Amino acid sequence: MSFWDNMIGHFWGQESLPLLVMVLCITALLFHFRHDERASLVNTISFFFVCQFGQFIGGLLYALELTRAAAVAHEVFVIGAGIAVIRLWGQLVFRVVLPAVKLTPPRITEDIFVIIAYIAWFMVRLRYAGLDLSSILATSAMITAVVAFAMQDTLGNILGGLALQLDNSIEIGDWIKVDDIAGRVVDIRWRSTLVETRNWETVVFPNSQLMKNKFLVLGRRTDQPVQWRRWVWFNVSLDVAPTRVVSVVEEAILHTDIANVAKTPAPNCVLMDMDDKGYGRYALRYWLTDLGPDDPTDAVLRWHIMTALQRAGIKLAVGEHSLHITKENEKYEEGVHEREILLRIKTLRKVELFSQLNDDELRSLAQHLRYSPFARGNIITRQGDEKSHWLYIIINGEADVFVDLSNGKRRAVRSLEKGNFFGEMGLLTGAPRSASVIARTDVECYRIDKEAVEGLLQARPAIAEEISHILVVRRAELDAALQNLDATGAHPDLSRQRNEILATIKRFFSLG
Ligand code: CMP
């Protein structure tokens, strides 16, 4: 036999080709189905080829008649190649085949199976090479003790991981808090549990640590949906009755759909403390349904609290420092007020409805306006509300007009934007609110009460006519939306309608 025949005969056996084909097929499948794990796949396959190369070297040594070295090299690299193959099979079965039949065993199952297969493969090869590891372990108490000692931690972690999974203490996707670290469990492995925090960190907890110490599973309660209670704090002077603060805030929050805020239990506002400076310390308590965006949801609620309090004319408590400045400087306060009035006049001038008013009339109207901000999603007027106290003018943002249909669905009628007014139907005719107006963005409005509107109409009856004109068109649109018709088809006789509405307005405001 020539040198090369000798070498190839030792390196390339009968099983080599099928093994290579199998490895390449598994690699191709994994490459195709597990995009995110390509890097680790490349490592495994490289390791496999390194072992193949090692076996080739073994063949060379054999051909060089270094039989003992060749046998050792061959055995070591066969064990290595086997480990790579076991790893590939583990990935194929647990990450491709089982998920394809809708089975997703936890990662630790794969790890344990693979480790057992490694050990079995190792023992088989050693026995094949003439060494019986089990008898060595059994006969040498010293080796057994060393191995057991070395494995102590690892075994603790494996058993810890198994126990965590078996008793369902934590599952992948749970939010947990250990000491001051909170995050979402993304993987439970044979040694450790991986937790991703909101700060984009991954914390690796040894399983035995989780078993030995207490940890919180956030938002989980038996037979209940996952949701986690949070507190949003704010202060209001005790000069304002706490019942009023609570009802203003709850009214605004309970009637708005806010992303990630649970409907049950409903959010509630409570007076938590009263401090010696005369402030009431309130908390809006709510349940967060997606535990990820905690601070952003708190921020949205703070904005809702702020706007609700502002609309009700309730000020958030401010530090002593700024109180001092405004109290001391009355001239400054007058200046601020005057600037605000000028700004309002400027805004009112741009509203078509008030285009005919002179400066004095605009100034008097400006003084009656109440600034009312709304947060996105707030229901500004609710269809069917009996009390229609206000006419609104939008100065910033957009709102949508909706009608509730008899089948329980809600239909969009129109959008309103900066410079538009709404709420006139109820305020001017005394009828319940005809539609719901919901803030599509954060919306800033001025609102005018009935007395101010009455003064305006008495001074300028032409405004009533103009409003009745707009009102009749809007009502036709509303009816069309209610009946799913074209607006012109719904009310062919618009001028008769207009006269009727004008008469209603005049009667309601006792205009001549
Ligand atoms: P009001 O009925 O007091 O409350 C709901 C308001 O929605 C209503 O007054 C109008 O101001 C407004 N509205 C109703 N229909 C329309 C429409 N078609 N276009 C614009 N606004 C409308």
How is the secondary structure organized here?
Layout: H1 3-11, H2 16-33, H3 38-63, H4 67-100, H5 107-128, H6 133-139, H7 141-166, E1 175-178, E2 181-188, E3 192-197, E4 202-206, H8 207-212, E5 216-218, E6 228-237, H9 242-254, E7 268-274, E8 279-288, H10 294-311, H11 320-328, H12 330-349, H13 359-368, E9 370-374, E10 379-381, E11 390-396, E12 399-404, E13 410-416, E14 421-422, H14 424-429, E15 436-439, E16 443-449, H15 450-459, H16 461-483, H17 487-490, H18 494-508
Antiparallel strand pairs: 1-2, 1-5, 2-3, 3-4, 6-8, 7-8, 9-16, 10-15, 11-14, 11-16, 12-13, 12-15
Helix pairs in contact: 1-3, 2-4, 3-4, 4-5, 9-10, 12-13, 15-16, 16-18
Bound molecules: adenosine-3',5'-cyclic-monophosphate.
Category by helix and strand content: alpha+beta
Count of DSSP-assigned helices: 18
Rg on CA atoms, Å: 38 Å
Work out the number of β strands. Answer: 16
* Small molecules bound: adenosine-3',5'-cyclic-monophosphate
Strand order, largest beta sheet: 4-3-2-1-5
The amount of helix comes to 40-55%
Give the end-to-end Cα distance, rounded to a whole number of Å. Answer: 125 Å
Coarse morphology: elongated
Poorly predicted residue ranges: none
Main sheet summary: 5 strands, antiparallel
Mean pLDDT: 88
User: What percentage of amino acids are in beta strands?
Assistant: 15-25%
What does this structure look like?
With 512 residues, this protein is of the alpha+beta class. 54% of the residues lie in helices and 18% in strands. It contains 18 helices and 16 strands. The protein has helices at residues 3-11, 16-33, 38-63, 67-100, 107-128, 133-139, 141-166, 207-212, 242-254, 294-311, 320-328, 330-349, 359-368, 424-429, 450-459, 461-483, 487-490, 494-508, and strands at 175-178, 181-188, 192-197, 202-206, 216-218, 228-237, 268-274, 279-288, 370-374, 379-381, 390-396, 399-404, 410-416, 421-422, 436-439, 443-449. It has a 5-stranded antiparallel β-sheet with strand order 4-3-2-1-5. Strands 9-16-11-14 form a 4-stranded antiparallel β-sheet. A 4-stranded antiparallel β-sheet has the order 10-15-12-13, covered by helices on one side. Strand 2 (181-188) and strand 3 (192-197) form a beta hairpin. Helix 9 (242-254) packs across helix 10 (294-311), helix 12 packs across helix 13 and helix 15 (450-459) packs across helix 16. The longest helix has 34 residues, at 67-100. The radius of gyration is 38 Å and the shape is elongated. The mean pLDDT is 88. It binds adenosine-3',5'-cyclic-monophosphate.
